[in-house]
Amino acid sequence: MSSIDSPLKVSIVAPCYNEEEVIEEFARRSLAAGRAAAGDSFELVLVDDGSRDTTWSKIEAMSSQNPEIVGVRLMRNHGHELASTAGIASSRGARVLLIDADLQDPPELLSEMMTIMDRGADVVYGQRGIRKGESWMKLTTAAVFYRLLRWLASVDIPSDTGDFRLMTRRVAELLLCMPERDRFLRGMISWIGGRQVPIIYERDERHAGTTKYSYSKLLRLALDAITGFSARPLRIASWAGVITAFIAMALLAYTFYSFEAGWAVTGWSSTMVAITVFSAVQLITLGILGEYVGRLVQQSKGRPLFMVDRMVRGGEDVPPVDSPDRRPRTGPYP
Length: 334
Hints:
The chain is an alpha/beta fold. It has 10 helices and 9 strands. It has helices spanning 23-38, 55-65, 80-90, 110-118, 136-152, 169-177, 185-192, 215-229, 232-261, 269-300; strands at residues 10-16, 42-48, 69-74, 95-98, 123-131, 161-168, 196-203, 308-313, 316-317. A 9-stranded mixed beta sheet has the order 7-5-6-4-1-2-3-8-9, sandwiched between helices. β2, α2 and β3 form a beta-alpha-beta unit. α1 packs parallel to α4 (110-118) and α9 packs antiparallel against α10. It is elongated.
């Protein structure tokens, strides 16, 4: 039976990477939230993104005890966005809740989100009102990033949101049709459009363990977001080139004027400053171009978005779902 025709009301999808300390509590709360929102008509899809601890063995054990739990083990670590994509591709529900396994986003909001969707929403996304347990540095950089992204992006991406959101099967299928390798899911879902409704919530501290997003990974995600949804950095680079060209011409005119006036132009400091400024602008421009070209090269290779090693449902092995093809699926959609 295809995911489009599935009788399940909702799939809860969670990417997991080295979450042995929290995975059991997350599964307990998610199963309770699923039953409260959909009775027995739901599934919990846990995607092991190449964990190096006991995350997968715990997923297997829980799946054998709970038929609602689906375990998906990727062949290697693909990263949060692609692991989430693998979970969505493996899900069968008429609606899909995307959530992290660290319990910062409460799965208990599922019932309220389902109610909002019953009123006609295509997407119900969580918007953080309060963020507990996060440093001022994290809060400041997050605020700057979201506002910079809204200024740069060609689509309206809501501020203070993560991947925590409930979407209809149609939105999920449209998302799977998008072939980007460097994915920024919250931006891609915003790009799809439809009626997207926020739900304000209080984000908790991480239940256990440590965050898997270092500042270097956050920077990479920010670059994926900006390059994936805006060409404005290229325009900024172009304008920087035009401005520095005018400055260079003005300096050249000043040099000729000084020579004709007989002024002695001495010192190497001004020369070094000019060379350094122009070189910096050129290197920054080349770096911006390189980010876009590098993504084009990776995209042109046409490799699968992810590779599934094993998939279990109710403790039994089932055929894994490979990276989705890029042909749009036809309806009917629930």
